[in-house]
Write a structure and sequence with these properties.
Structural class: alpha+beta
Strand order of the largest sheet: 9-10-11-12-13-3-4-5-6-7-8-14
Shape: globular
Distance between the termini: 45 Å
Order of helices and strands: HEEHEEEEEEHEEEHEEEH
Number of strands: 14
Strand content: 25-35%
Radius of gyration: 25 Å
Amino acid sequence: MRRDFEDFLGSPPSPTLQITYTGTLYSLGGTKDNQMAARFATAAALGIVFSCTTVFAKETALSVDYNFRDWGDLDVVILKDRMRIHDKLRSWTIILNRPDWRITCFSVKRKTIATMPFTEFRMALGERLGMMTAGDVDPTHWKKVGPALVNGIKTIRYDQAIAPGDTRKPTAQMYVAAETPVNPKVAQFLSRFFDIPNFQALPVRCTKHKVERLKLDTRSIRPCSFKESDFEIPKGYTKKRFEEVLFSQTSFDY
């Protein structure tokens, strides 16, 4: 840590160096290294934060590493008033942005873009790949079981409800984050996107018992830094239908 600090500032000032605080600035004479140290001391007093490479926003963000069975990995960054989903394999990004959470999907590789109001988003990715929860996305049809630990994440487990007298096992289970509150718009969008019930929480895992396998899993949820440019909408791209941007070809094969 100290080596990185010194590499950034240059050599530390000499032990006999005197720095004088003038009320607004620190000043000193001497070498260029000492002048640099003085400028840093001034900035520190004024509460200025430096980054060696990139200036990051101060707002807290969450990074969620999803794996969607039969689809692949999705990198998600969530803020209190916006979110970003990126698919590296298919080279597309979805951004939901303040103030109205309008949804924009674009592909940097193909230079295509699609956009729609949040209220019009009805397409669920699960519809292209098979229903994840036996078609029952109504949260009132699910029974709360209790706390569970999933990949080190504290969650609440829900089982798909079974009618009284029915001896069959629940056909699906849902796990949602217990200690990671998100904007209701985030929970609503992910519910539609993954074709899962909306429990007003961050989805962590979905299991279908009929096939005994995970349909949605979360490898990690962690704080992260981000750049404002991560949420910029590109200009000059060819406008397409939403599906044409998400899927590079119209067939279902990958």
